[in-house]
Amino acid sequence: MKLTELDSELEKNQLAGFWKTRVPLHASEAPYLWKWEELLDGLMKASETIGIEQAERRAIQLVSPHLPIKSPSHTLQFSFSIVNPGEVARAHRHNMAAIRFVVQGKGAYTAVDGEKFPMAEGDLILTPNWTWHDHHNESEDPIIWLDGLDGPLIRSLNVLFFEEYEKPEQPVTRETGESLSRLGFARAPKKDETHLRGVPFRYAWQDTYKALKTMSDSERDPYDGTLLRYINPATGGFTYPTMSCEIQLFKAREKTRIHRHTSTALYHVFKGRGRTAVGEGHLEWKKGDSFVVPLWQPHSHENLSDEEALLFSINDRPVMEALQLYREEAGN
Ligand code: 1HN
Prior knowledge:
Distance between the termini: 53 Å
Oligomer: single chain
Radius of gyration: 22 Å
Structural class: alpha+beta
Largest sheet: 6 strands, antiparallel
CATH architecture: Sandwich
Bound molecules: 1-hydroxynaphthalene-2-carboxylic acid
Mean pLDDT: 96
Shape: globular
CATH superfamily: Jelly Rolls
CATH class: Mainly Beta
CATH topology: Jelly Rolls
Number of strands: 22
Number of helices: 6
Strand order of the largest sheet: 1-19-16-21-14-13
């Protein structure tokens, strides 16, 4: 029998010979940077054009020109939301894990499973997989925050579930700050399986910044500068099983060493300006910009100013580690 005949016979039966296939190796993805000005302009226009009752969320997503899906990476996504004074972004839940990192404004709150979490610049609020969440702005000014989600990963697993709450707002059933008292410190919380998904929580900027500033030079990472992970306070593990949230500080003119790893990271510049070398090129960033460092691309960061720089980021390292796919190597 001729090989071509065999191939077409197999094809008819929805089969394929392995001799026809190449092993599809990792294909490198291109880095990209989204500038703050264009995003802010889009948000301001959206806040005038789109009523909050018209959309589930008034959010603008980052879209990589190098991917077949509308997302900045194949596992994690960033979007930015604007909520005007008096508005409520109605309650819903989904099995995508989400985080809010506040970039502008104060006096708003997110309710998560019955607890109000105040939102001010630099605060990180967690809405884990399948927790009810609605957003409120009780201040006089618009508030803007960054939404980080594991949406592309959940969609690629074809396991996305979503539910609307029966009313726009969920009832508040807990004291504000209760999660901090229960899980934050002082004692081990009662064992609860749901803690493994991540817990509703707020990391106040004041505490985060103080923790960063308390770190000594000996705690500085040669590849990542002064870096803190936002850990799950109940387990001590990653923020979520699918996503690690991190913040890093680079001192004036600090430059890190090159490395690469199999996790993908999305960055948001909270303060300062600098440059991240990725692969052959580099991304030049300043406050408000966001960028993606795709997996396995050698990269290093540099603070280009005489003041400190702060990068907030999310990455999919917990997934890579859980699946025994995490690899890391130093560059030159
Ligand atoms: C979402 O649920 C929120 O709950 C924000 O605030 C942005 C982007 C894509 C998919 C779901 C929110 C989102 C989102």
